[in-house]
Write a structure and sequence with these properties.
The structure is a single chain. With 443 residues, the chain is of the alpha+beta class. It folds into 2 domains: 217 residues, Metalloenzyme, LuxS/M16 peptidase-like (Cytochrome Bc1 Complex, Chain A, domain 1), CATH 3.30.830.10; 178 residues, Metalloenzyme, LuxS/M16 peptidase-like (Cytochrome Bc1 Complex, Chain A, domain 1). The protein is 41% helix and 19% strand. Strands 1-2-3-7-4-6-5 form a 7-stranded mixed beta sheet, with helices on both faces. It has a 5-stranded mixed beta sheet with strand order 8-12-9-11-10, sandwiched between helices. The protein is globular and about 60 Å long. It starts with 11 loop residues before the first strand and ends in a 9-residue tail after the last strand. The N terminus is likely disordered.
């Protein structure tokens, strides 16, 4: 269902769905271009409220690498109305919780509270996101925190290998960079640079506010408008920003191998290739294929590598999708001496599925996993709030639950096998973190 935009200058509210598996979803576009979506679920006694900004690490220039994440830290450090302590204590005093996260394509700030405390949560969160002062002492304090976070990440080879794989696929493109930035980019970053990024990127047309739980849509819209009044987000009329362009597609690197030598007890490996973007209709078939290959304990790779041979404790496949690109990959953590065997088995299984496809029984199981995980994942207000925001921010529409389940049901054996033949026969990139020399793996 398309989310059309109103003419600038007036707010327009629409009911998007009255889902039998959820609640009533409504959408209002404010004159500023900011969008508010809610899902009313009267049976709940809590509400999750999130402010989502269509800005992530891929929107940074090279010298700005880490700015979006840096800003995420700073927006809880104080506004013209509240100190950092007041921001946290006001929510915690009513038993609520707040947090935030930065991705490559968006940033989210959220709170979860009792339904009766939603007005407080909206006021606090709108104040923090719209009117942060970014005081110089706070910039310096959070710089130290972020540098420690980067160092901690470097001590986690199971996380580091995913960043190494992103670099193997995307190279110097922003999708290949660390969301946190690096010590070399975070250390010299000034308050002025962060402030410029903040005010240029955090504008109403780029923002979606979503809430789910026991709420009233009109009341939420009114509270949001009050919370943003007389802040930098109280702006002249504008239309919502267009969705992130899907063209031209990101140019990925030729298949390559990257090794990060590190004295670890376990080797961490990822083998994968470029895949489809998030708007590709084949994403439902890819979800099924992923489930069959490495999506659970009954998957081919888990059975072959862990259950039958005991070569690894953790082995799984995954698909990541962006507006204009995507990857499919297999991860395994194993003893360094078993890496070659694990890679050989993984390559052989991928080649087998590319050549022979999957079975009808596997198709049914993969579809069941997709449908079950989606529906079970909607049993709390936070996941429902996220669904509203991502539908609006990333797809421009909210697909009803029944329609999504129908799209999964419609996946055929031919759909999966055709995708497998195309995708799994591609040259594979390899990322390895462990006690190896850089030239230890040859293609």
């Amino acid at each position: 269902m398309s989310s059309s935009s109103p003419a600038p200058g007036r707010a327009v509210t629409r009911t998007l769905s009255d889902d039998p598996l959820g609640g009533t979803v409504r959408r209002t576009v404010l004159p500023s271009g900011l969008r508010v979506l809610t899902e009313a679920i009267p049976a709940m006694r809590s509400v999750s409220f999130g402010i989502w900004v269509a800005v992530g690490s891929r929107d940074e220039t090279g010298p700005q690498a880490g700015a979006a994440h840096f800003l995420e830290h700073l927006l809880f450090k104080g506004t013209r109305k509240r100190t950092a302590l007041e921001i946290s204590s006001e929510i915690e005093a009513v038993g609520g919780e707040t947090n935030a996260f930065t991705t490559k394509e968006y940033t989210c700030y959220y709170a979860r509270v009792l339904d009766e405390d939603l007005p407080l949560a909206i006021d606090v969160m709108c104040d923090a996101v719209a009117d942060s002062v970014l005081a110089e002492p706070d910039v310096e304090t959070e710089r130290g925190v972020i540098l420690e976070e980067i160092a901690m990440h470097d001590d986690e080879p199971g996380d580091e290998v995913h960043d190494l794989f992103a670099r193997a696929i995307y190279g110097d493109h922003p999708l290949g960079r660390l969301i946190s930035g690096t010590e070399d980019t975070v250390t010299p970053m000034t308050r002025r640079q962060i402030q410029g990024f903040y005010r240029k990127r955090y504008t109403p047309p780029q923002i979606v506010i979503a809430a789910a739980g026991n709420l009233d849509h009109a009341a939420v819209v009114k509270l949001v408008r009050q919370g943003l009044r007389d802040t930098p987000l109280d702006t002249d009329p504008a239309a919502p920003a267009p969705h992130r362009s899907t063209t031209p597609a990101v140019r990925t690197k030729p298949a390559t191998t990257l090794v990060e030598p590190k004295e670890t007890e376990q080797a961490h490996v990822i083998l994968g290739c470029p895949a489809i973007d998030r708007t590709d209709d084949r994403r439902f078939a890819l979800g099924v294929l992923n489930n069959v290959l490495g999506g659970g304990m009954s998957s081919r790779l888990f059975q072959e590598i862990r259950e039958q041979r005991g070569l690894a404790y953790s082995v799984y496949s995954y698909a990541s999708q962006y507006a204009d690109s995507g990857v499919f990959a297999v991860y395994a953590g194993c003893a360094p001496g078993k890496v070659d065997e694990v890679l050989d088995l993984t390559r052989a299984e991928l080649a087998r599925v590319a050549a022979e496809g999957i079975t009808e029984a596997e198709l049914a199981r993969g579809k069941g996993m997709s449908k079950g995980s989606f529906v079970l994942g909607l049993e709390d207000t936070g996941s429902r709030m996220s669904r509203l925001a991502k539908g609006e921010l990333l797809y421009g529409n909210l697909m009803p639950v029944d329609e999504l389940l129908a799209r999964v049901d419609a996946v055929t054996l031919a759909d999966v096998n055709e995708l497998a033949a195309e995708l799994l026969a591609r040259p594979m990139s390899l990322a390895v973190v462990g006690p190896f020399d850089e030239g230890a793996f040859t293609r």
